[in-house]
Amino acid sequence: MTDRQAAHDGPAGPGTTAVRLVDVLVVGAGPAGLSAAARLAAAGAGRVEVLERERTAGGVPRHCAHGGFGTWRRPLTGPRYARDLAGTAVRAGAVVRTGVTALDWAGPLDLATVGPRGPETIRARAVVLATGARERPRAARLVPGTRPAGVYTTGELQQAVHLYRQPIGTRAVVVGAQDVSYAAADTVRRAGADVVALVTDLPGHRTAPARALDTRLRRGVPLLTGTTVTELLGHGRLSGVRVRHHDGRTAVLPCDTVVFTGDFTPEHELARHGGLTLDPRTRGPAVDGALRTSRPGVFAVGNVLHAVERAATAAREGVWVADAVRAWLVAASWPHGEAWPVGVPLTVDPPLRWITPNRVTPADALPYTLRTAARLGRPLLEVAQDGRVLHRERVRGAAPDRSLTLTARWAHAVDPKGGPVRVAVV
Ligand SMILES: Cc1cc2nc3c(=O)[nH]c(=O)nc-3n(C[C@H](O)[C@H](O)[C@H](O)COP(=O)(O)OP(=O)(O)OC[C@H]3O[C@@H](n4cnc5c(N)ncnc54)[C@H](O)[C@@H]3O)c2cc1C
Q1: Which atom of ligand 1 has the smallest separation from the CA of 64?
Q2: Calpha distance 349→56 (Å, rounded)
Q3: CB under 6 Å to ligand 1: residues?
Q4: Where among 327, 342, 357 does a domain terminate?
């Protein structure tokens, strides 16, 4: 089949539901999935269908009412950015289906789904996983105490305020001091409530200094550093949180709302159920520079690979994957073959935390995204394989909540039969 041939619905076998065929099935209509779908549809990749479990396409930006999206030439609010991406995908010819959840695999490239039309199995010639990231709820953080109303993650808060216009309480404590924590504090204020404090167990904030200063001085919101939330108090409704400072002192902050922010993990359920190889550091699917996973015909893009990067990074990966998807549709060849992962693993040494893509083939060209556990001022990164230095590159300074970028100029020098490639700070 060429990549221009359309697919046709398959016959139902005895006792089975009909299997509908598409050329490319994209799971998730956030910036990554919509960008991939737009590019693929515009390039004539046949029937490109995007599934989105929410009622509206756009992913996380739908409920980020603040600016910070788009380009510096054309800055946009999150909802506007989401609408633009969805419009571009549809105009390019992609079919975006909302309210449809991909539940599980029903074959190597078949997905069992459920939506307004009921259950359905969709068979694709290529699948792009663009399921994003999710915030871990309070239970995952093991904060003891009662289970009162008024406990949110950032996403839950933003959806309640910006999408459903629900009241959230009057006095909120925000746990965290990263960009998303400050965005959550803005959302609390937009909802007409007061921010009692931002609380972090780190020694300082992890956002732009001007933003932190503005919040503290102009908004009068204190930042409690070296402080951990140890207990949630209240029955029915939250009445306060108990905090412990690093010197052992404890206190109760009276509040009726608490927002846990910034604890993201890739939404990797489908990848895990499908038995795709996951990277142990990112916890997302392991991919090479063409964003191919361990299963032939299955690709992954966006925050399912790295929780979480900026929307532009996710969208860029969506655009990038289109060429590899089209090449697969034409040739049906997967470089790793049966014994994947035979692509060389790519890993990092501390203080670097993770890198993605995390497999290398000599043809790779997509720049790598890395995170660090410690602040680094213009570090020199060294790439080595089996004691052989392949590349050295000085990159921009980075902090734990800001990513680093490393070019792929060295990938051609990798020995595909050699040991893992390591990236270290020299
Ligand atoms: C609070 C907050 C503020 C942010 N602010 C900014 C900012 O100012 N600027 C910026 O550039 N970035 C910002 N970001 C980051 C940005 O939102 C993400 O980088 C971007 O949304 C990632 O895109 P994505 O497509 O990978 O994932 P997502 O946007 O998460 O989209 C994934 C989509 O997949 C859907 N999905 C998941 N599983 C299934 C399934 N099984 N079936 C069907 N659908 C499924 C989800 O419903 C979701 O809509 C912010 C993030 C947060 C959380």
Answers
A1: 3
A2: 41
A3: 27-33, 51-54, 59-61, 64, 68-69, 101-102, 130-133, 154-155, 180, 183, 267, 270, 302-303, 308-312, 314
A4: 342
